[in-house]
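Hi everyone,

Forwarding the result from last night's run.
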Amino acid sequence: MIDGLSDSVPQNESGRPAHYTSLASIGLIVLSTVSGAAAQILLRFGADAIEGANLIGIITNVPLIGGYACLAMNVVLVVLAFRGGQLSILYPIVALTFVWVAILSPMYFRDVISISKIAGLTLIVAGVSFIGAGSRS
């Protein structure tokens, strides 16, 4: 016992330390960012394809349906990832979705990546990296 604290480390149901985040969970969360970015791109394609504001046009829109499917897959991947790691480590990685969308948008929609967008994306990647590095100390 040190300073009145127990030497035992709390463990989760798998027998690992409670603060442990598995590589599989990190992989699932990164995959969820790709799925989330694909959803955003498909939803944008779907929004561009809607003619008028009728319900039938929205629910039969193939890109929108694909976008919704990617969003559903995103949720499943996030839930599975959260089972094997710390929320404070895994959830910030979701911010990488913004990076994927910013990279893909100019390819499909003639979006412009300005210097300020590059700076913002750099800050997102740096922030996620710092969180990851901080979890190892």
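The CA atoms of residues 68 and 104 lie 18 Å apart.

Cheers,
N.
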